[in-house]
Specification:
Layout lengths: L27 H13 L3 E4 L5 E5 L8 E7 L7 H12 L9 E6 L7 H7 L4 H7 L17 E9 L6 E4 L1 H8 L7 E2 L11 E6 L2 H23 L1
Parallel strand pairs: 3-4, 3-5, 5-8, 6-7
Antiparallel strand pairs: 1-2, 2-4, 6-8
Helix pairs in contact: 2-6, 5-6
């Protein structure tokens, strides 16, 4: 099945992204196409030692940790969070953010969350290799623990659904501050020991995600300047 392609107004040319899984449990074709997408946009493509993919557009201050838009990489059909992450990232191409912005795909063979779990430090990489031997192919890459983030967003666009934000209060506040959008708040949501995280769901989630990234990037830039 073909995943959603970038809209014509993103300014980035990309062919359809095919998410048919390979026999290894990794979606190798999709991973290759993401690398081509990064190249076409002149963005930075990196993989860590568990196979997570980071496509990064530089911000104005490279000393700040990046803000990530995340999704699972190896699902057998397009994951709805991939659509939200991709389109939010591309809509930010012409926005001058203080921090870097990263399109982050977590390794997810057999519909697992192993890439995210290793990045969080919840599962040792050696154990991940035992569970999913195909991930050993990335063993020579930099350790996942070295890839730090200022924030992480999950953006899920759902037509006709109310806009809702769940997660870290600072990011929820940024989402609620989006002009022209009424964003509700729900308790719970994703958590991370390494960065603030928020899930934005509903009709208009991509617009709210874009505003949240831009607003939070400005916030951390000002905080860094005050502490310097």
């Amino acid at each position: 099945m073909a995943a959603p392609t970038p809209s014509e107004d993103t300014g980035v040319a990309a062919k359809p992204l095919d998410q048919s899984p390979s026999k290894t449990g990794l979606n190798l074709e999709f991973r290759k196409q993401l690398e081509e997408l990064a190249s076409s946009a002149n963005d930075i493509f990196t993989q860590d030692n568990i196979g997570n993919i980071y496509i990064t557009r530089r911000g104005l201050d490279s000393s700040l940790s990046s803000i990530a838009l995340s999704f699972p990489l190896d699902t057998p059909s397009p994951h709805i969070s991939f659509f939200g992450a991709l389109h939010t990232y591309m809509q930010l191409q012409e926005t001058k953010t203080k921090s870097d912005v990263t399109l982050l795909g977590f390794s997810s063979p057999a519909d697992s969350t192993i890439g995210h779990d290793v990045w969080e430090g919840e599962v040792p990489v050696s154990e991940a290799y035992e569970q999913y031997p195909e991930l050993r192919a990335f063993a020579a890459n930099e350790d996942a623990s070295t890839f730090s983030l200022s924030a992480m967003l999950e953006v899920i666009e759902a037509e006709d659904a109310p806009l809702v934000a769940r997660g870290s209060p600072l990011l929820v506040d940024e989402a609620k501050a989006t002009d022209g959008r009424e964003v509700g708040i729900e308790e719970g949501g994703p958590v991370s020991s390494r960065s603030p995280v928020v899930s934005i769901y509903g009709s208009g989630a991509i617009d709210v995600g874009k505003a949240t990234v831009a607003g939070y990037s400005a916030h951390i830039g000002k905080s860094f300047e005050k502490s310097a």
